[in-house]
Amino acid sequence: MNYTTGTGELQHWLVAEDGFRTNWLGKGEAVFSLGNGYMGLRSVTEEHYANEQRNLFVAGTFNKFADNEVTELPNASDVLWMEFTLNGVRFDLTQGEILAYRRTLNLKQAELVRDVTWQSPNGDLYDLIFRRFVSMDNLHVIAQRVTITPKQESVLTMTSGINGQMTNSGVQHFLEGDKRLYDGRFMQQLQTTTESGIDFAFHSVHRFSQHEPFEPKSIIKMDRRQIFFDYSDVVIPANETLTIEKYSTVFTSRDRDLSVDTTEELANFALNATRDVEAQGYDRLFNDHVNAWDELVWSHAPITIESEEMFDQLAIRFAQYHLAVMTPKHDHRMNVAAKGLSGEGYKGHTFWDTEIFILPYYTYTNPKIARSLLEYRYLSLPGAHRKAKENGYEGAMFPWESAWLDDGEVTPVWGAADIVTGEATKIWSGFIEQHITSDIAFAAWQYYHVTGDQDFMDNYGYELLIDTAKFWASRLEWNEAEGRYDINQVVGPDEYKEHVDNNAFTNYTAHWNIQTAIQYVELLRQEKPELFEQLNEKLDLETADERFRHVLDLIYLPQAREDGVLPQDDTYLQKEIIDLTKYKNQENVGSMFYDYNLEQVNEIQVSKQADVMILMYLLEDLFSADVKRANWEYYEPKTLHDSSLSLSTHSVLASDLGDQKLAYDLFRRASEIDLGPNMKTSDAGIHAASLGGIWQAVVNGFGGVRMTGGNLRISPMLPQAWNALTYSIDWKGETLDVQASQDQVTITRRTPSTEPLVIEVYGETREITDTFTSEVLSV
Ligand code: BGC
């Protein structure tokens, strides 16, 4: 990977790959993936290679193949597919010689360009440029442009079309539908998911030009789940350029913006849309796409980092790029998947990754999108109720992994091999990783206090917070001997400890959830009697409130030991301590499992990811600086960061604790999860939560932004390598621009107001009407 190819205006905007290796295809496919939140396209090459993983995902089009499998996002038809022969030889980079090669993702324009000079095995020379984008302006469009310039007269043949012979690791999610050619040029393929019955309509059309547009000799072909053209006898004179464009569209019967009732109507609509797309042509479509990116992302929430390290600015843009590619902002029935739309990993499911790692980016920069993602949770309350009921609880028990709104739990039950027993390891998260419920409540609360969106609270927020608290109130277990409520047999954020009692993160956030619900019930009773009545009917607020008040002070909250260390759970601190150096310095995550199985890891003081520390980040008011430091010193050395989302949390906390050097080191490590030199990290897809975490490390960490108890704090503290950081955040409907250097910070209200805005800056309360500058102070 090469991060320095961008110069001039393109400095820090380009991620490039300078070599072609078939054993490393996964990295580029995921890191360069394109998309627009409606769909995500893994960046495979036009021509096929062994080891490739061709994926096209359309957000929210889940299907369940069989009863003993979980719902997953199906791998849709491959429309990128183009195979060439040049003077009778297949264009294949594993044959002949590559004289020049570069593949570049331009983050600003969201375009992927592959530039190759190839000598075919028979000695002929060709310059080929492949460009493509997935439109951010028209969410249904994928456009490709290929130019071929031979050094000698050449004859080209091309096979190109739509290939529906796709599977998710062997599982075919589609029933074959009709295929047809229209107007002699437009290929149409229809498919329907086997269980969820979603119709997909794919169309592709080609355009050829060499000085002038022309139609080459062609024959249309169909095969099982395939429709394609064979083009032949295309003569390209020496040093002349042939341009081939392929326009493809993807529509489904889940598209909210379409008013079609039948497969036929969908097909007709999509066909006409494709005609229109082709008529616009690549340049115009591209222009609209670039403008949409600029408006939605780059001008909307720009971040600049002046750093000694070129990579840092690129890293934050890369994170923002992928967050935009993966987020289905167009439809509140959908959410972000743990691998975005860039790979089959985690089956397209949504985890706490959204609320705790990704959502803050949107809450602080694009509240509309944050709200849509939270509405997804509100709309999935039926599934959460079902899960609670099935487990003998009340209220909303959110699934650990989530797909359809009413699915309930979709976490697979069996996972990786156990190296000791040889059996598949049981994944307990779907049964007992329950903190997801308070994570969602917390995110809704955070959203409300940052944005001030009262309409959200009235329609969704109060209900979410109270319904989740009902779950916790029913989940508590009375401990007669201690006279308190425990939460036993859970998995906390640290998934290396299963079946633990009183995981601190779980207990504290459950307590917070119930406490907040009590406040809101009271507020509704006093200030919003009508809404109180409505919710009372739905949730039986009177009874719930009584129970909340009864249990609140009896919930066991693990307390810090004398040395300040808070037990992660009832038994963690009594477990064996071993030398973890080997695993801390690992190149690949999970290396401990080459030596131990999960049962053994369970008995060692080692954490997969931030657990106690993330509690101290989210509910920071509850813990003193000394307690935070004591826990940091205890748990950081025991945390392997085997989940990619962990590094960014520790980076923010290191910033809070004033260790800018370590904070920066952790930020860099987080940035290198997808972008770094390890060529195997992203095979299953990019790491969505980690990318959200990178934004948090920059803005919440170095940028010093925090909302606590409804108040805003901005106290930046830059790492040594940075001269300046600028960013903007939305705060209760207005935008604040922050410029920070090593010595000074300036906070500017974009729309000045005589009504002062109260912000805590380096421990002092400031009232700001337009702009305010402070020295940088450590607090
Ligand atoms: C982590 C979870 C995370 C999931 C999906 C797991 O490895 O432990 O915290 O939610 O991956 O990213």
Report the mean per-residue pLDDT as an integer: 97
Class of secondary structure makeup: alpha+beta
Query: How would a textbook summarize the main sheet?
Result: 10 strands, antiparallel
Bound molecules: beta-D-glucopyranose
Give unreliable regions as ranges.
none
Beta content = 15-25%
Helix content: 25-40%
Number of strands: 31
Sum up the overall morphology in one term.
globular
Distance between the termini: 39 Å
- In DSSP terms, counting alpha (H) and pi (I) runs of 4 or more, how many helices? 19
Integer-rounded radius of gyration: 27 Å
Describe this structure in words.
This protein has 779 residues and is of the alpha+beta class. Helix content is 32%, strand content 25%. It contains 19 helices and 31 strands. The strands form seven sheets. Strands 1, 7, 8, 9, 10, 12, 13, 14, 15 and 18 form a ten-stranded antiparallel sheet that branches. Strands 6-5-11-17-16 form a five-stranded antiparallel sheet, with no helix packed on it. Strands 19-26-27-28-31 form a five-stranded antiparallel sheet. 52% of the residues are buried. The model has no long low-confidence stretch (mean pLDDT 97). The structure holds beta-D-glucopyranose. Residues 338, 346, 351-353, 495, 608-609, 643, 645, 689 line the site of beta-D-glucopyranose (BGC).
Please write out the topology.
Elements: E1 14-17, H1 25-31, E2 34-35, E3 39-41, E4 56-58, E5 82-86, E6 89-90, E7 97-106, E8 111-119, E9 125-134, E10 141-150, E11 154-163, E12 174-182, E13 186-193, E14 199-210, E15 212-214, E16 217-223, E17 226-236, E18 242-252, H2 263-298, E19 304-307, H3 310-326, H4 352-365, H5 367-379, H6 381-390, E20 414-417, E21 424-426, H7 429-432, H8 436-451, H9 454-475, E22 477-479, E23 484-486, H10 504-527, H11 529-539, H12 541-551, H13 581-584, H14 598-601, H15 612-618, H16 625-635, H17 646-656, H18 660-675, H19 688-702, E24 705-708, E25 711-714, E26 722-731, E27 734-741, E28 744-749, E29 757-761, E30 764-768, E31 771-775
Bound molecules: beta-D-glucopyranose.
